[in-house]
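Hi team,

Filling in the usual template for the complex we talked about on Friday. All components are listed, including any nucleic acid strands or ligand strings, so the model treats them as one assembly.

SUBMITTER: L.P.
PURPOSE: interface mapping
COMPONENTS: two
RESIDUES: 949
SEQUENCES:
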Amino acid sequence: MASQIFAYAIIGLGSGALISGVGLGVVLSYRGSGVINLSTGAIAMLAGYCYWALATGEFGVTFATGWAIVLTLLFSAVVGIVFELGVVRPLRRQPPLAKLVATLGILLSAQAAIVLAFGDTAHPQPSILPGGNVTLFGVTVPDYNLWMAAIILAAALVVVAVYRWTRFGIGTRAAAENEAYATLFGLSPNRYSMGNTVAMALVMGLVGMLAASIAEVDPTTLVLLIVPGLAAAMFGRLTAFTTTYVAGIVIGMAESVLLYLSTQSWFPTSNGGPLPGVDELLVLLVLVVATFFRAGKIPSRGDIVESRLPRAPRPVAPLRTAAVFVPIAALAMWVLPFGFREGLITSCIFAVSLLSLVVVTGYLGQLSLVQLGLAGVAGFLVSHLSTNFGIGFPWAAIVGVAAAAMLGVGFGFPALRVRGVQLAVVTLAATVALETFWFSNGSWGAGVIGASVPAPSLFGFDFGTNASFHGLGGGEPSPLFGWFCLIVLVVVALLVANLRRSRLGQQMLAVRANERAAAATGVNVRNVKLTGFGIAAGIAGVSGVLLSYSYGSITASSFSALIAVALVAFVYITGITSVPGGVFGGLIYSGGIFAFALLDWFGLQGNWLNLIVGFLVVLSLISRPEGGATFLFYGKHPSLWARSPKKAQATRPLSGTAHGGTAHGADERNQHGLAPVEAEVTS
Amino acid sequence: MTAALEAAGITVSFGAVRALQGVDVVVDEGKLVGLIGPNGAGKTTFVDAITGFVQSSGSVHLQGQDISKLPPHRRAHLGLVRTWQTIELFDDLTVQENLAVAGGRPSLVSTVVDVVFGREPRAEQTAEEVLGLFDLQEVAPEMPSNLSQGRRKLVGIARALAAGPSLLLLDEPAAGLDTQESGDLGRKLRRLVDNGLPTLLIDHDMGLVLGICDEIYVLDFGKVIAHGTPDEVRSNPDVLAAYLGKSGQAQAGARWAAVAEGTRER
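RESULT (copied from the run log):
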């Protein structure tokens, strides 16, 4: 047994090297330009496909391995240069969160491009490493694992040497410390940023090619390697190359040993097979530990940052807006042919999902990538309560939403300590862990085939997708279900709009803007954050419930991390800080009505939309950070809505309705708030 | 009579550095108390300590109630409200909303009702009054970033007042204001105090502090080196040395005397 564990640990060196490589890429990006680069795995995937295409003659010419390696590295360098000029440099002055979202956009685009070009099936590729075996302490293992670990180690050591002993390394460190001073001393932060980005891309090129030894090339594996890669990088505090390398190797070995242990008889099983998702849980745990105990010491950068999250305008007249759009949508549910009808229903459901992001990110300023996972929690609970316990609508839905909300509050607790960018990282890992550990689990989740969800009905009245009432075009889904979704969306949208106008919403924005000042003016920052997370999670739960009813069955893949990433990208271009942003994001979401129209009229797949939206995110962050729909609805000037005379009046009827309702008059200032004793009584 | 604020033995350490060493400050009801000291003396650290933003030892009593262990927002609820040297407005909210956040602590029920029925939060009378006091009504719907530095400063004070303080802590409210604005602010502060709001004023503008305060504490290297009426502080040799350095005392003393003399005319 001990020798088996040893053998699996050595085998784990291979995947550990890939994790280390991705981690190194993250560190290089952070040190070079302050970007927490979630697209490093995606760049490795691009390189992997490039190598595969060159080595197998996908483009008609087959290159010898050596040439394929050289050309792939060249290709990686070009990707790095494009990434630097197209993403990093234009976003230099943006806050860290915007930079992170931009890299999510790149991830989405890269993935969509590969699926469009080569399909989403895996392709076998020739290894670049010799395929011999090596015997260590009586255990024989394939030696490419050792080669991979050695090559990435060499890359790490080269980077360390360059950082320590060359002018380039010193310059990079100086620019990260204080960009303004570095510029004054004649150093060019742009040049160092470019150097680091290209170095990152080259390391990713290595990772992409080395992966050929242990995996076929496919559009997701390497992309998602970012999660353990981030865990390793966090252990290195986003700055230490060697620590990152070691952490990555250790994670890889631990995962491999776990794989061996899962074959043992004592290992917990589920539905006959070993419990899935344990290694993802392990990575989540590592990431949480790293974030809590190491991230506090991540050196913040002395960048010149100009802007913050885009403004969150106050809704002018949400009811009036709803009165215009709702009848149109309701009519469309009945009139449209079934494909469009289904698209519209999907749009409504994802609009609800996106509204949960509007609350947690737009209002509260915390980027959470776990909202879709929370939707999944609610959806799976609905499925289980209905099929296993006979609890149907509405109780199953209520329980599901409540559970999601409670879990959301649970995710709010880390947000009390880690914020912004690091929270995004932890929640991304949580989404992956939820998907593999819970949703794919044969007994609690859907396994591979999916779990069924009975149609919703109330007092014997069936309004599921297969209800007997049909629209003009006939076929499923029934317009009844569409109207149900529409009603839910309208209610949620109005609540989110009202939230922005309420005191609680103002407190959320106060917390978003300045936590210290909020606390100093009496805002309980902790409670506001937890409440915000709870509300957002509840909304996400609602969307999960609708999603489960709309498919009639529920699968883990509906709640994957890549879809979570896509959702953030879509809502960022329409506007993450406003209700119209969320609703329009749902309309254009791939799978929604706009995507269906593209497919039906132009034959364009949803991945075309993802490809374009991924790039649009970067563009939008540069030129219109508030998002298209927000801009459309609230115009350019922050205080435009407030200048209209009607609004000014509405906010001024203070006498009589004043807080506390006491008498008013000229002397009231003294009694009513400014004087010490009275202030305490009235509040 | 219990004092509005009684801070005793406030000590703050940053690593090996002792930023404050046993500072005692008392603000009596109805008094405007100044806190001055050279750069780095620990004035802002003192404010951070008693409002709960920095870990400190010692005790803080607000109207006789021990608040030493409370988190910042609870201290604010009880009436210990501060402004910031760096203003720190909520940049995502309008001026009016900035004040509203300070003024309202909504109950769960009223929040739910507001969100469900889409009611506008009721405008706070206090907030309106305060806006009027500082002539800020016309900028109420503006975003803070559209205002001048001086106006932003005033909005910061207005927001503190909207929170319904029982004791006001002002951290350099006059920095960035011109002489006339500063004098104007001084008169307004004096009137607030005379109407019953005890205030601790920290500022570099000696004219302002010496001119309007009832008593003054002088802080240097984290210790109170002098305490008394403006006249007593003016003539205190330790204060002179702290501000001007012991070596330059002779020649610089004359300059200090001139400044101090000038403020008498206010």
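MY TAKE: Strands of chain B lie at 5-14, 17-27, 32-36, 57-62, 65-66, 80-82, 167-171, 199-202, 215-220, 223-228. The two ends of chain B are 31 Å apart (CA to CA).

Thanks, L.
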